[in-house]
Design a protein that fits this description.
The protein has about 120 residues and is α+β, with helices and mostly antiparallel strands. The protein is built from 3 helices and 5 strands, in the order ββββαβαα. Strands 4-3-2-1-5 form a 5-stranded mixed sheet. It is elongated.
Length: about 120
């Protein structure tokens, strides 16, 4: 049985609230879980102590049993200092595509030509 430490969503529409749970990876996201390990409330400010609450002893136990964490939960554990920080791939999502780069180059070339024309006059 593959155990995951993951988030199970609760709360109403547009008001999310998550339980941090140890669950069988084959179970649905909000379905049956083995043990509740904590809570996460994304609506609270980032510096609030109540935003993420975890029972660290039980988290350590499940990690010792071979449980895998999801990306979001592993970030919580890294912030708490339980797990060492992992290198994550930067997918360069903010980088513009080919067409946008071409348009930017054309615009820069036109601006340079206009600057040369005004400098000659």
């Amino acid at each position: 049985m593959a155990i995951k430490i993951r988030l199970a969503r609760g709360g109403s529409k547009k008001r999310p609230f998550y339980r941090i749970v140890a669950a069988d990876s084959r179970m649905p996201r909000d379905g049956r879980y083995i043990e509740k390990l904590g809570t996460y409330n994304p609506l609270l400010p980032k510096d609030s102590e109540d935003r993420v609450k975890m029972d660290m002893e039980r988290v350590q136990y499940w990690l010792g049993q071979g449980a895998q964490t999801t990306d979001r939960v592993s970030r919580f554990l890294e912030a708490a200092g339980v797990v060492e920080k992992k290198e994550r791939a930067n997918m360069k999502k903010a980088e513009p595509g080919k067409k946008a780069k071409e348009r930017a180059e054309e615009k820069a070339a036109k601006a340079a030509e206009a600057a040369e024309a005004t400098a000659e006059e």
